[in-house]
Design goal:
The chain has 300 residues and is an alpha/beta fold. The chain has 11 helices and 17 strands. It has 2 domains: 11-105, Elongation Factor Tu (Ef-tu), domain 3, CATH 2.40.30.10; 116-273, Nucleotide-binding domain of ferredoxin-NADP reductase (FNR) module (Rossmann fold), CATH 3.40.50.80. The chain has helices at 3-14, 38-43, 84-91, 125-138, 158-163, 183-192, 206-216, 252-255, 266-273, 277-291, 294-297; strands at residues 18-27, 30-36, 49-53, 61-64, 67-69, 74-80, 97-98, 100-105, 116-122, 142-149, 167-172, 179-180, 199-203, 223-226, 242-245, 248-251, 258-260. The strands form 4 sheets. Strands 12-11-10-9-13-14-17 form a 7-stranded mixed β-sheet, with helices on both faces. It has a 5-stranded antiparallel β-sheet with strand order 5-6-2-1-7. β10 (142-149), α5 and β11 (167-172) form a beta-alpha-beta unit. Bound molecules: flavin-adenine dinucleotide (FAD) and FE2/S2 (inorganic) cluster. The site of FE2/S2 (inorganic) cluster (FES) has 12 residues, from loops.
């Protein structure tokens, strides 16, 4: 081992307190990890996130804080393996450490007693919605949660969402559980049945958030979306997370990630999320070739 490698290994060891204490596979591509991060657990609030780097060559990726416990000094993250960094994170095992973890980042959700609150969420967005539903419930709201996924096997945190909701509705695209269709259909139906929502939170894929905001727009129901643009520094300096809200440029990492959904330019968000598909594919292919296939190098 060269002197440089030895020094960088020692530095990595000293700056790697973010040990994985538990790991669980929630669905074929979605994993949950519990990480030792006392400073973050101590300050976290609903709606905030962390930015982490798995290893020395790793890119910085944002993940929402799902739960935190300041007594045990732990945080929980739930992530879908969509590309190189999330696959690398998923290949870490209990007792491995994440190299860097910065947080809590972002402006916390504005939680108060609104009255009747709907939490509309889909896919891995359910994980990001859970702490918000929980905080809304604790603030005295009547919480109606609408959770959706492509099929039953991909539904996350059903039991947890039930515990923090007064009413829970499920929808799946293929009809394998609950309503067959989209979460926005269920919301439309409830509004049609005279549910007078004081606030709607929409958290999930940008298309789902856009559709949900179109359901509430004619009724003037205050609707908040949690935006998920590409982020790099998470500190308002690099500009990667630029979004347009009400015709103004905002940085989702510091001004958000939550914004008024009716004023958000979702088309721009969707376009900007697709800026680097060939680079993302290339880096994943390159890494998998170098590893001889990432899924074969470790047991899940
Ligand atoms: C505030 C915030 C909170 C997030 N919380 C979670 C979470 O709790 N769980 C979770 O699974 N994901 C979350 N995401 C998305 C997650 O950060 C990305 O999936 C991840 O950065 C992808 O990195 P990758 O290298 O694995 O994939 P890449 O190869 O970089 O990208 C693969 C695909 O993911 C999309 N993508 C890339 N970066 C982002 C990004 N920052 N946000 C959304 N899509 C992206 C690309 O458009 C591409 O289609 C969050 C994003 C933000 C901005
Ligand atoms: S991530 Fe760099 S400005 Fe927001």
């Amino acid at each position: 081992m060269s002197r440089y490698e030895l020094i960088s290994q020692l530095v990595t060891q000293q700056t790697s307190p973010y040990q994985i204490l538990a790991k669980q596979q929630l669905s074929p591509q979605i994993k949950k990890i519990q990480v030792h991060a006392p400073e973050i657990a101590n300050k976290a609030k609903a709606g905030q996130f962390v930015i982490l780097r798995v290893d020395q060559e790793g890119e910085r990726i944002p993940l929402t804080l799902v739960t935190w416990n300041n007594k045990t000094g732990t945080i929980t993250l739930i992530f879908q393996e969509v590309g190189l960094s999330t696959k690398k994170l998923g290949s870490l095992q209990v007792q491995d450490a994440i190299m860097n973890l910065a947080g809590p980042l972002g402006t916390p959700s504005h939680i108060k007693n609104y009255g009747l609150a709907a939490v509309v969420c889909g896919g891995v967005g359910i994980a990001a919605a859970y702490p918000i539903a929980k905080a809304l419930k604790e603030a005295g709201n009547t919480v109606v949660s609408i959770v959706g996924a492509r099929s039953e096997g991909l539904l996350l945190l059903e039991e947890e969402m039930k515990q923090v909701s007064d009413e829970l509705y499920i929808s799946t695209d293929d009809g394998s559980k609950g309503h067959k269709g989209f979460v926005s259909d269920v919301l439309r139906c409830l509004i049609g049945r005279n549910y007078q929502f004081d606030i709607v939170y929409a958290i999930g894929p940008p298309l789902m958030m856009r559709t949900t905001s179109e359901v509430t727009r004619p009724y003037g129901i205050k609707t908040i979306a949690s935006l998920n643009p590409i982020m790099v520094d998470g500190m308002g300096m690099c500009g990667a997370c630029r979004v347009s809200v009400g015709g103004k440029t905002k940085f989702a990492c510091i001004d958000g990630p939550e914004f008024d959904a009716h004023s958000t330019d979702f088309n721009e968000l969707i376009r900007r999320l697709k800026i680097y598909p060939s680079e993302e594919r290339l880096s994943l292919d390159f890494h998998e070739k170098a590893q001889g296939g990432i899924c074969r190098c470790r047991q899940h």
